[in-house]
Amino acid sequence: MPTLAGQTLLVTGATGAIGQAICKALAAEGARVLIHYGRNHAAATALLSAIGGQGAVLCADLTDPAAPEALWTEAETHGPVTGLINNAGIRSEIGVDAPMSDWQTVWDREFRVNFHAAADLAKCAIPHFRKHGGGRILNMASRAGQRGYSANAMAYGASKAALINLTKSVAQSFGGEGITALALAPGWVRTEMAEAFIAQHGEAAALSGIPVGRMAEPQEIGELAAFLFRPSQVSLNGAVIDVNGASYLR
Tens digits of per-residue pLDDT, 54-76? Predict the structure, then answer.
């Protein structure tokens, strides 16, 4: 029997390269996948078709403070939900010389999508998991949350650091109830975000400092996510798993 048979998993930000890879890997292991998207309905429905219709498509704008609770409520109609993958994220740039109003707008939006939405979904998920015998949360963090980040994207690094702390807090606080939490902290992954950076700065700048000499592929992240949702992986509760080609070692 597939390792994730019987699981129903909500994946936020599912239409990006990493999100799609996660959904495909989960479905390949037998999970039913709830595919969240913000704007790209066509990509979400195409993804559902690509995984053989094993799930459903859910829409929510995570910049709206009310959206996470509404998204979870809709997910429950396809449940019980056994796991949550907080994959949705944005990366914005703003320098310290920018006007204060612009600075605050960027930081507020970055934290709203990257952290507050994840925290709100976790708040909704935990009571649901309690009712249904447990569950698991996987937060998509970043190398940036471990080591700090560049001056023009500090909000991104800070939001990912907060996500890592949330992961550890959930793991410590609710592990005894069968509710576990983990985080993945990738470095560069070959996505649209990475390609945009390469277009501006060159591939050598992106690969600098990565001993293996290449970015991670989205499929690597997908494979890890599927592994982490195996019921046997309880002792990984609280782990923050680095996926960065040894570009940052703790």
Answer: 999 999 999 999 999 999 999 99
Does 162 reside within a domain?
yes
Q: What does each C-alpha distance from 218 to 24, 104, 124, 212 come to in angstroms?
A: 11, 31, 28, 16
Our count of domains for the chain comes to: 1
**188 CB-near residues (< 8 Å, 6+ apart):** 194, 206, 207, 210, 215, 216, 244, 247
Q: How confident is the model at residue 197 (pLDDT cuts 50, 70, 90)?
A: confident
pLDDT in tens, 114-156: 999 999 999 999 999 999 999 999 999 999 999 999 899 999 9
Q: Does residue 55 contact residue 32 with C-beta atoms inside 8 Å? A: yes
Is pTM beyond 0.90? Reply is yes
Residues annotated as catalytic are 156
- Can you say whether residue 134 is alpha, beta or left, with left for phi > 0 and alpha for psi between -120 and 50 degrees? left
246: in domain: no
Q: Is residue 3 part of a domain?
A: no
